[in-house]
Write a structure and sequence with these properties.
alpha/beta; TIM Barrel; seven-stranded parallel sheet; 12 helices; globular; disordered C terminus
């Protein structure tokens, strides 16, 4: 069985996790709604992941809803001492499966208690606050409200660490004035790289970056360079994409999700891939390499509270 140990480690606050983790979103039914088609298979995937050394599982109680956390509890409780479960709040599911904002103080508090109950824990290791609003002013307001709620729950001992999801550098800077932020979870992969500079800036501050849809989501990653490197390394394109992300930055924590043990093993095997510099350059692109320093300078300014700089990058 492949092991994730070669992926290295990074810290989420005072918690150390291996850089290749597991995203549990796809364990519930189609559309991340309702029960899984094969409950025993879902439980087996979770157990296999932990047996392979995964100690960072990403989840949310609105996956299902409730079902994914209940599966985690059934498969893994009592949890290994080093297992870190990261959850997310700020959304809820409609009766039709739609994803709706749930950002009021009462809704956020209820979501924390739902996660505690369904995971059967006394304290949540990390809670990410998801931004559900495209309007910047509305998003800023709700992030401030949400982090204030989470900081209070943290003081009460229900939440250990706090993160943010789907946010800008300026919103991260504002959030860090309210509480410590240990991780940021945004969309990022080889084809969607708006956060290149942000990743580097967060690395300097010791903050983890957790890309969702690391393999492209509904639109799998495709490029001639990716296919060529995969052929040269006798690997799948998904494995090369994960290996590239691990090489991309030391603060990158991966949570590829699957409901298949076969795909889980393939994802874990990505830690065995060593990308030559020539392959890294081909995958990254010369324009990206040349622009990183300029973008990082702008992002450092944003993270340090210069919100005007945040707009330009």
């Amino acid at each position: 069985m492949p092991s994730v140990e070669r992926s290295g480690t990074f810290r989420l606050g005072d918690l150390t996790v291996r850089r290749l983790g597991y995203g549990a979103m796809h364990l519930s039914g189609a559309g991340i709604f309702g029960p899984p088609k094969d409950r025993d298979a879902a439980l087996a995937v979770l157990r296999e992941a932990v047996a392979a050394g995964v100690n960072h599982i990403d989840t949310s109680d609105y996956y299902g809803p409730h079902i994914t956390n209940q599966l985690i509890r059934e498969a893994l409780h009592p949890y290994p001492d080093d297992l870190v479960i990261v959850t997310k709040i700020g959304a809820r599911r409609g009766t039709d499966g739609s994803v709706l904002a749930a950002s009021s103080p009462a809704e956020l508090t209820e979501a924390v208690h739902d996660n505690l109950r369904n995971l059967d824990v006394d304290v949540l290791d990390v809670v990410n606050l998801r931004n559900m609003f495209d309007d910047a002013d509305r998003a800023d307001e709700m992030i401030e409200i949400g982090l204030t709620v989470l900081a209070d729950l943290q003081r009460r001992g229900l939440v250990r660490h706090i993160g943010l999801s789907s946010v800008t550098a300026a919103q991260i800077a504002a959030g860090r004035r309210i509480c410590e932020i240990v991780c940021v979870q945004n969309r990022y992969n080889m084809a969607q790289r708006n956060d290149d500079a942000l990743i580097d800036a967060l690395a300097v501050d010791g903050i983890a970056y957790v890309p969702f849809f690391p393999l492209g989501g509904r639109a799998p990653l495709e490029s001639s360079a990716l296919s060529q490197v995969a052929r040269l390394l006798d690997a799948t394109t998904a494995q090369v994409a994960l290996a590239w992300l691990l090489r991309r930055a030391p603060n990158m924590l991966l949570i590829p999700g699957t409901s298949s043990i076969t795909h889980l093993r393939e994802n874990i095997a990505a830690v065995e891939i060593t990308l030559p510099d020539t392959a890294l350059e081909a995958l990254s692109g010369a324009a990206y390499i040349a622009s990183r320093a300029k973008g990082a300078r702008k992002c450092f300014a944003a993270l340090n509270g210069d919100c005007e700089s945040a707009v330009s990058w």
